[in-house]
Amino acid sequence: MAATLSPEATVLGKAALSDARPPATEGFEYDLCVLGAGSGGVRAARISGNYGARVIVAESDRVGGTCVIRGCVPKKLYVYASRFHDAFEDAKGFGWTVADATFDFSKLKHAKDKELERLEGLYNQGMAKAKVELVPQRATLSGPNTVSFADGRSITAKHILVATGSHPVRPTIPGIELADVSDDIFNWEALPASLVIVGAGYIGVEFANVFVKLGVKVTMVMRRETVLPKFDEELRTQLTDAMRSAGIDFRTKAEVRSLEKTRDGLRVSTTAGDDIIAEKVVFAVGRKPNSVGLGLEALGVELDKEGGIVVDEYSRTTVPSIYAVGDVTNRVQLTPAAIREGHAFADTVFGGLSVTADIHPVPTAVFSSPELGTVGLTEAEARKCHDVVIFKTSFRAMKATLSGSNERVFMKIVVEKASDRVLGVHILGEAAGEMIQLVGIAVRMGATKRQFDQTLAVHPTASEELVTMRTPSA
Fold it and tell me: What does residue 88 show for φ and ψ, rounded to 5 degrees?
């Protein structure tokens, strides 16, 4: 029989083949409707489709979500670009002559845009192979099993998964419309001569490091004395010092009161009593769940005080047919967490398994200069409930001995005294993110300090210090 076309849905921008899809559960048009085609939603849709579920996904923006389109991926590409600044300088110490190196921001943006198009295509292909329909529209919930699209059409689904992500916070201050947020940065066609970044979390720190290395005059306005308030104190202090040495101007214990457009640029007035003039201002003061206007409250879906959807360990909401994963739940706002949650949802609901997204301890990295990687408890957190022993070291990496760089590597291992179990590992230095991914396996498995010590060192590497620290510092 010839295939018939479904005019309502598109996959890869082409009409979907209606007879290529599996039948839905009796009484419903679909087994699953996913709101949002970011990392968590796409993973849930694809795995569910591979299990044989009939799946439809609604997305009003580009497929890939924050991480692929305006977050982790383009940011890391910009990080790579910025690090050539130091690489050219380091090369001189190894006999290289790098003459008249120049940087063209427009070429970087063009290359980034092409790569994002490629990745978006791969996401679409993955869903197409799983026979997932994609509707490029905003969707809302009009019933516990009913989803309405922007064009007025409605469908029914046995299960609904909300994976709408989060958005950057814009504080309510005079002139806020003059400022950008992280989503806007990747649309910039040119580098600003000067930039004020408000906030000192992951996003603010990473972009401050990127743009100062690309030649931008960067000022950071933050409430505290050091960056990254949730990380180990020694790493925070040393990273702040390194960023200051790189040329970043810090305005600490301050908040922005207002913005004003002037002949010389944007005037940033702070609670510290001083004004800063800059070409651009970026607010990086957190993200909030995209839960407003979806129809959740009317159906009895519980939200937390920040608007996050309240879920249990299986990502179930207070309405039995409705689930949620990713940033919209306000649990751990990291892409790998959303992917794990989406996969666990599909395994449980359509795979006949009972899977929870058990992600702790969470290994994470901040792609600053120097890079930061951490897993487990900070020293302060560990001391609140454990009798601990601390091992730490600070040194110049071998590469720096010839390059002349003053950058240092810092490592700390937090150990429970009674059991010898490693509670946390914290690294500041080149490739810290790569190291912490591997260390995270050991920490999750409950490795002891003795087992670290028994592991043969790989020499010469910076990471060998993790298995050669013998003398406790506290």
Answer: -65, -40
The pTM assigned to this predicted structure is 0.92
- Where do we find the tokens 């498995």? 445
Would you say 343 and 332 are in contact if contact means Cβ atoms under 8 Å apart?
no
Residue from 159, 360, 426, 459 carrying the catalytic annotation:
459
Q: How far is CA 362 from each of CA 24, 337, 365, rounded to the nearest angstrom?
A: 37, 9, 10
Tens-place pLDDT, residues 207-221: 999 999 999 999 999
Pairing of strands 372-376, 249-251: unpaired
The pLDDT tens digits for 358-388 are: 999 999 999 999 999 999 999 999 999 999 9
Torsion angles phi and psi, residue 395, rounded to 5:
-160, 165
Strand, helix or coil for residue 149: strand
Looking at the predicted structure, is the pLDDT value of residue 16 above 70?
A: no
| Half-sphere exposure of residue 150: CA atoms within 13 angstroms, side-chain side | 11
For the chain, what is the mean pLDDT?
A: 94
Burial class (CB in 10 A: 0-12, 13-18, 19+), 234: middle
State yes or no: is 360 an active-site residue: no
**Residue 91, helix vs strand vs coil:** helix
- 335-349 and 39-50 helices, crossing angle to 10°: 30
Question: What is the Cα–Cα distance from 37 to 34, expressed in whole angstroms?
Answer: 8
Whether the CB-CB separation of 324 and 161 falls below 8 Å is answered with yes
First to last CA, the chain: 75
Report how far residue 424's alpha carbon sits from residue 427's, in angstroms, rounded to the nearest whole number. 10
